[in-house]
Amino acid sequence: MDEETDIPSDLSFPAPSDVACDACTGRKRKAEQSCLQCLASYCETHLDMHNMLHVNEKRHKLVSATERFKECICPEHDKLMEVFCRTDQQYICHWCITNKHRAHDVVSIDHVVAEVKFKLGTTQREILDRIKIREREMQELKQAIKAFKASAAQAVEENEKSFTELTHYIEMRQCAAKELILAQEEAAVKKALEHLERLPSEITELKRRELELQRLEQLSQADHGVHFLQSILFTPALSSSLSSPVLFVHPYSSFELATEAVSDLIKKMKHVCNVHFTNISEHVQTAEILASPILKTREVLLQSASKLTLNPDTAHVSLRLSEDNSEVSAMTLEQDYTDHPDRFDRRAQILCNEGLQGTPQYWEVEYGGNNWVCIAVSYIGIYRKEKWGKKSSLFGRNCCSWGLRCYPSSYKFWHNNEYISVKYSRRCSRIGVYLDHGIGILEFYNVSDDMSLIYKAQTKFTEPVYAGFGLAGKRTHIKLCDLEAAAMSIPQH
Fold it and tell me: Which residue of 219, 357, 423, 474 pairs with 464 in a disulfide if CB–CB is 3.0 to 4.6 A?
């Protein structure tokens, strides 16, 4: 009977991409694993046979089915390479150790695999953190684009409304000027025509009187002076209409001055529009979705320095404050604090007194100890009491606080119960915090080193925030720095 008659007929046969069983005769079946000692691959049935055959020997090394045996064999000694030489950075067999690699730094391949797996795990976590950051950036960018487009549409609509209103106002003034000119034209022409209508009759009357006076002059030259005088006495005087002064008629009377005034107005409006449009253009060009980060010097940051004080009514009973409420330390013994509704009951945390919003704010914190501290900002409504067995919230472990946890050799930024491993390795003992509440920026700087940026968070604040601190472990401490003194120590340029 053929050997294969003992093999179940329902085993799968290898696809072109699979490895075939080396022990099968006739039609090959799919190999499940390969033996690095035997340099052969086996299907499920022949793998059982292989294991039974070598049951009393040192267990052979089995791996997923592969045909790449040559890569595992030492080309010089034709033995399985089970050792890695760190000195020469190459894989070798055990015989190579006694030859070319004597006294070299060698470790087992399993040890190297474990190291590489650890590095891969670390790299994978870093990649996942970066994916999380990029996904958050992508979401924020999508929201920013949507908000930017909405702002642009609103600006266009409002500007069109404003320019339409301005155009309507100018058109109204244009109509008013036109009506003024036409009304003045009508009144002046009517007055002139009325006078013009009276002039022919006045001229006729004056000519008649002139003829009468000529007759009287002739009479005065006659012998009878009595007749002349009697004629003069009965001659009526000139009427007021005939004796009124002659009107002055402007030879070039026109609306030229009014036209010049309108022209002057247009010139001034054009100048005003040009000046303001330049200003409008500058404001439009500053509207960006993506902007290059602005490197802030300490001198610049200190211009936004804020004076903060710790609020003793919020301090957990394990925290001891200095007399001026600028320092806090985690203690072994509980402090003698009275009950207060604002106090953190279960978390070693404390808030400051000052609500922060509006203009940018900057403060600096010195910290130390053998455990982590959290430098945070929080809404006033953060949960502080234990209820139904649920402890109050740590900074950053909820949607109403943002916190940078500072470990002895690493940093994590927490918000909404999610954290990001911060890619910053320098140790520091003094951190500067910059808050621009209006545009939702929260930045942390290494003041004790070179003012390098530790982490920048872009978020959205919907209400005032309060600086807060969390202390893990005993004898950790935090101190709010006197920035007024720091600012005075900076040389003036």
Answer: 357
Average pLDDT over residues 212-226: 73
pTM of the model: 0.48
Residue 387: per-residue pLDDT? 63
Question: CB count, 10 Å around CB of 470?
Answer: 27
Q: Which two tokens stand for residue 327?
A: 């320092």
Q: Average pLDDT over the chain, rounded to whole?
A: 84
